[in-house]
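step 4 of 6: structure.
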Amino acid sequence: MVKDVSLGQRKFDNSKRYFYALVVALSLFFFGFFISYGIHAFEFQKTSVLQDSVFYNFYKTQLSYELFNNSNCSSDYLDQIGKSLDFQGSMLANLENKFGKDNKYVKERKAYYSLLELSHYEEMKKLNNKCDLNKSFILFFYSNDKDYLDYSVKVGNILSYLKKANPNVLIYSFDVDSVDPLVHKLVLKYEIEDPVLVIIDGKYRLTSIHNIDEINEYL
Amino acid sequence: MREWLIRVVYASVFFGFFALSFYILTFISGIKRKIPQLKDSQLPKATVIIPAWNEEDSVEKTMESILKSEYPHFEVIFVDDGSKDRTYELAKKYKSDSRVSVFTKKNGGKASALNLGISKAKGDIIFTMDADTRVHKLSMKRMARYFTSPEVMSVTPAMLIDSEGNKMTFLRRMQAIEYYLGIFLRKVFATLNAIYIAPGAFTVYRKEFFEKYGGYNEGNITEDLEMALRIQSKGFRTENAPNANIWTFGPANFKSLSKQRVRWYTGLITNFYDYRRMVSRKFGDLGLLVLPIGWITIMFAIFILLTTVITSGINAVKYVLYLNSINFGFSGFFNITLRGFERFIFQFISNPLIIFVSFSFLATVLYMEYAERKTGKIKDLKRNLAIFFFVFGPLFCYWWCVSFFKIIFKRAVTWR
């Protein structure tokens, strides 16, 4: 007949294995984050290289105008730089999302990015005035503060679509909380009180946007 | 809310890694484990009980397969559980073999048919076998050899999906992968003395256990699971014979697969609840790790599905509102640039969860490698592993949810 087995006899196969498994699990867990951060570090590096490249190209263009009085009206070159800036913008948005808006390196890169945007804005405006390119300029001031984040994202999405639908519209985004003194001066220049604001061609100020038509009206 | 969700997911991932590491370490230590085995002359007399209800399509294949078994002395008891088709007539054909007895009774469920078979059995060990199952000719021997210690009360085989003569549909391929993964886990659980699921398709028990602790619970929809938990709760051992291949047909369409899974999972939840006292250090690795992981898996599956449905719903509403804000314009919608693609890939591969899923994926490749070495290769199965992960994974969550709600709202769960 079957003999009763006392549960007191039930042993762990190897109780030390719990500790070893914990060590392996922790290693795997941190290794996963390490890989993720490694990819982001690579992204940081790539952003810096791209920004340096855009800066060099701006400098070269400016010198070209000054030295050789370049009268070419083509905006191709600036369009290319604009695309590169868009790409950098999305990279920075990812990095900000990953490391947080208060991260020292994110702040540095964003400040640099804002300068590049302003340079592009100025160059494009000059070319537009000189050659009558019929471009519209939108300055988009946003905030990553949690009270304004959802609305900022919403307006950002509408503007992204606007740019896709209308290539003659140029959009420059600035974080109102940026540490960069130039952006701060820009905020003061436009007397920005609402953290989310759209300025069209330097004249029209829109604070409450819920539909693309509200912007199209002024273009 | 989002932060809170991420914390829950990461905590679950960490717990999953802990279990994964524990299982792999157990497997490595189990390689050296020497299990004494009976010789041919020591093999006990066996009875194979085959309960059947409306199995006319498979009964002949099952009978022929079991009768070809190279086991020294065994009898087969076929119990027709009030079938409405030709199951009983087809089974009667085998009565000419002196080892076969065929009974028929009023329909009362699989457990009642098994109990009838147990009451007629003359063997010292009892194999229970589904009527849609095929066995390797050496599987009975390979399993019975484990009955060396009186503590070993049952032995489980390596369960596989039958690809012989059956069309390997997409769903069957997915089940084949799942069964493959189960072979690794069952081996690990055997090392830990923590097997808490014995396949109803083919498992062997000592007859003494039924005599002392009673037969199958006739009110239980997963009577085999209840039996495995009962064996563990009494302090006995269930071993595993990873080289004892058995093949089951596996549901071919989604409806029958869903029915099977909801029955299994409902049975698992109710039996887990009935044996909740086993979640305790007193039950060794089973009580401290294996059963709690079972509970956590159920809860996590339900949590993931519900949060995915809710967040997808919220995102869908947000997206419609966005489309409304751009007057449902689609300019540039399909304009996929190389840089845009690069952004997508970067975001994808830099997501820690994707990296963690990749680790788990690698682990399952190892599980499959082990199963292939033990049971043989099924063509192209590894190639389907990624599909299994992304298609069957959400389906598991869905079946767990359905089962959980069936229990809460006391809805009936049927066999077919």
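step 5 of 6: annotate
 - The mean pLDDT of chain B is 91.
 - The radius of gyration of chain B is 24 Å.
step 6 of 6: archive
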